[in-house]
Amino acid sequence: MAIYQFRLNLIPREGIINEFGFIPNKLNINLQEREEHYYLSEDNLLEPNDFFIDALTMKFWDSVDILPTEIIYYINKLFPRKPLESKSDYYYWKHYKITVKSTIDHDASL
User: Fold this and answer.
1) What Å distances lie between residue 81 and 47, 52, 68, 78, 95, CA to CA?
2) Residue 91 main-chain phi, psi, to 5 deg
3) Residue 19 in contact with residue 58, Cβ under 8 Å?
4) pLDDT of 87-102, one tens digit each?
5) Which of 20, 43, 57, 93 is the most exposed, fewest CB within 10 Å of its CB?
6) How high is the mean pLDDT of the chain?
7) The pTM is what?
């Protein structure tokens, strides 16, 4: 079981520039509004045209032409091993680094 676990979203630089015209210092992610919107949706209390938009819902990838193999190449540079499992559209990396003081366990998937 993981002690520290977090989600990392890759966002293409070109997609951000296409959306905003520049790279902002910070992307807006409103967790409270996101949660409220989710529960209103679950209770069918939203109008059909009621959209919630923040940095996690924006379509940054739609305007760029990046092949998944390019991303896999860079992840392979971070994790020295090749993907342990690969299916047609899913890659999974696992890497352990054992030192005297601790064990570091990295997982990544795409």
Assistant:
1) 48, 39, 17, 9, 7
2) -125, 145
3) yes
4) 667 777 776 666 667 6
5) 43
6) 80
7) 0.63
Q: Are 64 and 12 in contact (CB under 8 A)?
A: yes
Please answer whether residues 52 and 34 qualify as being in contact, where contact means their C-beta atoms are separated by less than 8 angstroms: yes
Q: What is the largest CA-CA distance in the chain?
A: 57
Residue with tokens 């890759």: 10
DSSP letter, residue 59: -
Judge residue 104's burial from the number of C-beta atoms within 10 Å of its C-beta, 0-12 exposed, 13-18 middle, 19 or more buried.
exposed
- Residue-wise DSSP of 16-38: HHHHHSS--S-----HHHHHHHH
87 Cβ neighbours under 8 A, 6+ residues apart: none
Residue 34 CA to residue 11 CA, distance in Å, equals: 19
